[in-house]
Amino acid sequence: MDKVVHFEIPADDVKRAEEFYKDCFGWKINSVPEMKYTIVHTVEVDEKYMPKEVGAINGGMLKRTKPVDRVVITISVESIEKSFEKIKANGGKIVGEKRQVADMGYSAYFEDTEGNIIGIWETIKKQ
């Protein structure tokens, strides 16, 4: 079973959103300007940057643009290509190409049958 592993919060003013979530919920905010992305820790992480608490997830913030113009959850999958096939076969639509995120993994977005935008994540297997 594939799990929800990440969330993304789009914002018109990312700095304002960073301050809001930090002040309201105590989240740790780490802006990564070269990626135009903000990493959000809602819980403590281990040395591999994975949540220490079972069932907890961390996320990110980014400038509001299509297709990420609403809050998005991200599901970890074994293979984005295989997931693309299943998504299309079951009435979903791919809304962006698979893209590499540093040396961590690959991400992509799809639209489900209800019009929701959902992210999928494939971790790069380390040798």
Unreliable residue runs: none
Radius of gyration: 15 Å
- Percentage of residues in DSSP E strands: 35-45%
> Which structural class do the helices and strands define?
alpha+beta
**What is the global morphology?**
globular
Arithmetic mean pLDDT: 94
What is the string of SSEs from the N terminus onward?
EHEEEEHEEEE
**How far is the N terminus from the C terminus?**
24 Å
Characterize the biggest β-sheet: 9 strands, mixed
Helix content: 10-25%
Strand tally is 9
| Separate helix tally | 2
Structure explained in plain terms:
This protein is an alpha+beta fold and 127 residues long. The protein has 2 helices and 9 strands. It has helices at residues 14-25, 80-89, and strands spanning 4-11, 28-32, 37-41, 58-63, 72-76, 93-94, 99-101, 105-111, 117-123. Strands 1, 2, 3, 4, 5, 6, 7, 8 and 9 form a 9-stranded mixed sheet that branches. A hairpin with a 3-residue loop joins strand 7 (99-101) and strand 8. The longest helix has 12 residues, at 14-25. It is globular and about 45 Å long.
